[in-house]
Amino acid sequence: MTGKQTRDFIQQNAIHVEMIRKEQRHHRLHTEFSINPHRKLHVLADKPMSRNSEEVIEENSDFIKAFHNARQEPTKKYTSPVTESQELGWLSASLIPSNRDDRRFNFYRCSTDITKYKESALRSSN
């Protein structure tokens, strides 16, 4: 065969053994399990007619802290905005105290003679 050499069974087995050794060298067994605090957790109740006694489950304080931290608003979690879209409404408190009597910021609905006439004409046409 030109350009290609055929491999016999011993060479293929040696290549396979070498690949397995490489995989085992880099393989790490993860024994710690935690629930993702960013996903919604659905708790299912036991069957009403089950005779098994309730299991006592110990609380994991690290998980509870991570869960509550994930449920907070971004302004309480971070000191500054993380994304560009958060920059727009990061400081949502009003810069000027609200005063309902200040006519510069409060535009109430006003009626003039022309608007009163047009309103009465629209009511009479219906």
Automatic annotation (TrEMBL):
Spell out the subcellular localization from the entry.
Cell projection, Cilium; Cytoplasm, Cytoskeleton
List, alphabetically, the InterPro entries matched. CFAP144
Query: Chief location of this protein?
Result: other
The record's keywords, sorted A to Z, are: Cell projection, Cytoplasm, Cytoskeleton
Q: Which GO terms describe its cellular component?
A: ciliary base; cytoskeleton
Q: Which family does it belong to?
A: Belongs to the CFAP144 family.
Report what the protein is called: Family with sequence similarity 183 member A
**Species:** Monopterus albus
